[in-house]
Amino acid sequence: MTSILIRGGTVVNADRSFVADVLCQDGSVVAVGENLHAPAGATVVDAGGQYVMPGGIDPHTHMQLPFMGTTTMDDFFSGTAAAMAGGTTTIIDFVIPNPQQPLLEAYQTWRGWAEKSASDYSFHMAITWWDETVKRDMGTLVQQEGINSFKHFMAYKNAIMCDDETLVNSFKRALELGAMPTVHAENGELVYLLQREVAALGISGPEGHPLSRPPMVEGEAANRAIAIADVLGVPIYVVHVSCIESAEAIARARARGQRVYGEVLAGHLLLDDSVYRNPDFASAAAHVMSPPFRPKGHQEALWRGLQSGNLHTTATDHCTFCAAQKAAGRDDFSKIPNGCGGVEERLAVIWDAGVNSGRLTPSEFVAITSANTAKLFNLYPRKGSVSVGADADLVVWDPQGTKTLSAKTQHSLGDFNVFEGRTVRGIPSHTVSQGVLVFAQGELRAERGKGRYLKRPAFGANFAAAKLRAEALTPTAVTR
Ligand code: URP
Ligand code: ZN
Ligand code: ZN
């Protein structure tokens, strides 16, 4: 029996925090309380002066993603190992079929790639095209394979973009199945047009990237997706909300009583669009991701969204391309592979900028880095809580520990760090995954293939309420 006793820390859950020891045995939390006894042979971790929190859950990563003609640097092993070094013990990645590719074929491919994961993982399924087989396979994925969320890219025209017909059909099917539709909200037609217009102005460098994807391009798509979800009566989750326009769309819909959820990336909270004006192509290109980093002012709106409860989760969209890969767009910004890293840094930068600044309490931090994601994607309370019966996926957090973030010391295989040079206060001292110490005082002990695929059941009662709403739209007989 493998046992770990984490002694003398302050347990932080999303609902409360309290001083307690935490005993883990054979991968589960078996006791949370004061003065727990260490079984023979147990590893004892002294958590005095530290917090003991549920391991982070990153609901948006792309490991080993083939995208824009190349494949990300981090695979499922290096990416999840880096995640664990930063206190994140679960990722939800994306299966992204090519248009016309059967969903189940793509699903099996991604399951194969992910077998090397060091941490537990799950998948959202992207819907990139539509026909009756897609509709059927969505059912198989929900009912047999434990996928309860479907992703729709409203951008990336001529690649994986979904048109409105696909969006409507897929949202309706998701509702039938009790699955959550999610969207990458950017109007792909506008991006396509603006890319050409910006190029015609003679702008070929990375500074053209944000010009071709202004905030209203995101705001339009967010409003459209939310409106479609409202008409159909299905909840909706908007990934990587980066600007005031889409944050306000979500807040407005929620004020009307609509079940809309928003995700924010660590990068969008902390960086602004000045990164694209760096004369060094490699640095500017390394920041090319979509939606782009935004002008100052948008970051504050995202923090306020998290503080007010109108935005719910934090993620990274971890999608690492090295300088040689980014160089594919040296003469044309629209060809720079889109994506940045961050899976290892998310918790530390959000703690430093969020908790140390007083914007978030430690419990609110747990909510937005772990518990809310577990609830929204049906992993709770197995994940997202320090409680008896939960998986022993924990992070022991040293609020006084400091670190200067750098590509030179990161575990990710990417050669760039968007948080380069930032010194954070508040870092993991230990990470426990499946009841095993996988990171201790700077030493990473990630094991290839140790991670498990997490099935996430369809929603029941939560969705029934949405269906009632849909039924309310059914016309009643008009008496004249
Ligand atoms: O630029 C990004 N975000 N790359 C990954 C694909 C996506 O849009 O999520
Ligand atoms: Zn996206
Ligand atoms: Zn993404």
How is this structure best described in words?
The chain has 480 residues and is α/β, with parallel strands linked by helices. The protein has a single domain (54-385, 454-462), classed as Alpha-Beta Barrel (TIM Barrel), CATH 3.20.20. The chain is built from 15 helices and 19 strands. It has helices at residues 76-85, 103-113, 132-145, 164-177, 188-200, 208-211, 215-232, 244-255, 266-270, 281-286, 298-308, 323-326, 346-355, 362-376, 461-472, and strands at residues 3-12, 17-25, 28-33, 43-46, 51-54, 56-58, 66-67, 70-71, 88-95, 120-126, 149-153, 180-184, 236-238, 260-265, 313-315, 394-404, 423-433, 436-440, 443-444. Strands 1, 2, 3, 4, 5, 16, 17, 18 and 19 form a nine-stranded mixed sheet that branches. β7 (66-67) and β8 (70-71) form a beta hairpin. The chain is globular, with a radius of gyration of 22 Å. The relative contact order is 0.18. The site of one zinc ion (ZN) has 3 residues, from loops.
Condensed summary:
The protein has one domain (54-385, 454-462): TIM Barrel (Alpha-Beta Barrel). Helices cover 33% and strands 22% of the residues. The chain contains 15 helices and 19 strands.
**Overall mean confidence score, pLDDT:** 96
CATH superfamily: Metal-dependent hydrolases
Name the beta content range.
15-25%
The level of helicity is 25-40%
The N- and C-terminal alpha carbons lie at a distance of: 75 Å
Mind describing the biggest β-sheet? 9 strands, mixed
Bound molecules: N-(aminocarbonyl)-beta-alanine, zinc ion
Low-confidence stretches: none
Could you say which overall geometry the principal axes of the C-alpha atoms support? globular
Number of domains: 1
Q: What structural class should be given to the helix and strand makeup?
A: alpha/beta
Give the oligomeric state. Answer: single chain
Q: What gyration radius follows from the Cα positions, in whole Å?
A: 22 Å
**What's the total helix number?**
15
> Which architecture does the CATH hierarchy give at level 2?
Alpha-Beta Barrel
> Remind me, CATH topology?
TIM Barrel
> How many β strands by DSSP?
19
